[in-house]
User: What shape does this take?
Amino acid sequence: MATIFSKIVAGEIPSYKVAENDAFYAFLDINPLAKGHTLVIPKREVDYFFDLTDEEIAAMQVFAKKVACAIKTAFPCIKVGQAVLGLEVPHAHIHLVPMQSERDMLFTNPKLKLTSEEFVEIAQKISSYLPTE
Ligand code: AMP
Assistant: This one.
């Protein structure tokens, strides 16, 4: 059965898309730790991040780097933090979170409640800072 993230890639479940190429997809986390919290996933369905091939991890990290640079421009922060957890959704993903302090990476923190208009605005803002391929 397809994961919720595969359904997002297929367009069967809506998402606030930030970026996409032939192999990877980036979209806003629906329970963000901070404005700009983005998930980067491979389109190929693999549960555990470290089961991806070396080539996939390398290419995914380069894709995530571009997204992280755009997040940092859109939402000025000290650094964009990166985390891989994957305990909730069995489809490999990288979390990218704008950080003002180390505490911003605590996944036990309360999540922001944003309206769909705010999510749309955030996704568009990040996208606008991505290089055109
Ligand atoms: P984890 O698997 O522990 O890394 O957490 C999965 C993350 O995916 C959580 O931060 C959720 O808020 C996020 N998430 C789950 N479903 C969706 C969805 N439909 N759209 C966007 N983010 C989601």
